[in-house]
């Protein structure tokens, strides 16, 4: 097509035409190719994912990609020891905590271990054996100092926490203040220049979530009054958030897509929006084939010749279990060698049990059992209908060397399944999930293991708790002193 043969021209001119065309093509494609490659290396776009993180340098406040993509040298001690205040509604001890509390705990114990002086302001701990109220407690010099305000266990009262903070801040001012979501309300946060807030889900994501959830309702199934109320309430919430979010100085988005929403819809100046993905404990989850075999043998799933899907988390409707239930019940009628292991408990436990011996419902699991669970499966399925934040289970599965099947949400597409090799995405409906699962079955365990290897490499470079801690440390240093904003 490039060689124009419509015009019949003298031989010589045709030749020179070809030559000019070639030159023309060359002159244009080379710079374009160069530009594409260059764009990839400088903006680290998600379409050219590689485990080797390309060289990038500049002011970190201009970075619109996740900081996790950058290597941070793991030097023994930080250049400056920071005094950090943390506002968290809850501080987990023992029992399985929610994502936000787990984030606070993982991050701030890591920062304290690196030598920073971390003070956590939180509600009275849910633990009846010890009196945590009043006097600050800390088990060793290298763990965070916990300040519980007085009152009922687990019931957050920000003004009480603020009093404790104020007292400590007067004694010796904090370098940085970190709020887990709105633990510190904007009325108190508005005057703090050295404040960063991590958003574990924003109202715009809740709106998407409501849409996905309602679309899974059957035509003759009535809408529950509570859901209707939340559906009608969510738009005013989005508007409200857009109006008050700018009162927080620095914003940490825990997914790339949330960062985009904060910049583009919430209109926060982009140099105040930083994307740092949450991390999971790299020692807790890793690839261990024999552990997986043992687990399969124990629960009676054949090691050879079978294909095992795994799902984990609370077994509730909005985590997409109705979709998986429907899709899997159809899948097993055609494929007798396919199994599903369910780790977690909740209302959908009994429905899964109806599906017979090829579904194993194992209840809530301890971290060590969970590690074996991930190793026992061929692929991890996360059918969630809630795009808020980012599900840690996806990261845990990838860290354990497993490919994933997940809802095609902007957060998952933008930060987790950023490469087709990492797994499969589906629209949040049972038909689309079934299609994805059929593809999984067609590929079989060998190919899935290959994909899992790619997942593991990516997860090890992006989703570790130590990477998250180093990225936050760098942000906090940058908040204290501009010179630390310049990377590397
Ligand atoms: C949902 O609530 C709105 C306003 O509160 C009301 O007008 C509507 O009829 C309700 N719809 C359903 C299905 O309950
Ligand atoms: C599974 O298959 C592999 C080779 O394909 C074989 O070495 C192994 O013994 C088999 N394990 C079981 C439990 O059948
Ligand atoms: C910031 O850090 C640089 C380099 O460590 C130092 O020279 C400078 O004095 C610091 N500025 C402030 C305001 O602390």
From TrEMBL:
<dbReference type="InterPro" id="IPR001296">
    <property type="entry name" value="Glyco_trans_1"/>
</dbReference>
<dbReference type="GO" id="GO:0016757">
    <property type="term" value="F:glycosyltransferase activity"/>
</dbReference>
<dbReference type="InterPro" id="IPR028098">
    <property type="entry name" value="Glyco_trans_4-like_N"/>
</dbReference>
<dbReference type="Pfam" id="PF13439">
    <property type="entry name" value="Glyco_transf_4"/>
</dbReference>
<feature type="domain" description="Glycosyl transferase family 1">
    <location>
        <begin position="305"/>
        <end position="449"/>
    </location>
</feature>
<keyword id="KW-0328">Glycosyltransferase</keyword>
<dbReference type="Pfam" id="PF00534">
    <property type="entry name" value="Glycos_transf_1"/>
</dbReference>
<keyword id="KW-1133">Transmembrane helix</keyword>
<keyword id="KW-0812">Transmembrane</keyword>
<feature type="domain" description="Glycosyltransferase subfamily 4-like N-terminal">
    <location>
        <begin position="97"/>
        <end position="282"/>
    </location>
</feature>
<protein>
    <recommendedName>
        <fullName>Glycosyltransferase subfamily 4-like N-terminal domain-containing protein</fullName>
    </recommendedName>
</protein>
<keyword id="KW-0808">Transferase</keyword>
<feature type="transmembrane region" description="Helical">
    <location>
        <begin position="12"/>
        <end position="37"/>
    </location>
</feature>
<keyword id="KW-0472">Membrane</keyword>
